[in-house]
Specification:
It is built from four helices and no strands. The protein has 60 residues and is mainly alpha-helical. α1 packs across α3 and α3 packs antiparallel against α4. The termini are far apart.
Amino acid sequence: MDPSDKEASKIYRKLITSDDFKAFILYEKLNTQMRMKVMTKLNQNGSSQANVLLKKLEKF
């Protein structure tokens, strides 16, 4: 696990536990590469909360 994967996991946990507004602000600050890693983690998780957040972020 390289450092960027660890950082992506940390951001993923913050997105999942944040409300929608905070999640959008955090997601907006990410660069393209990190956005793709976080989206991949959301997609792999498959939980209902991850799927809802994934759909909302895809619209963004």
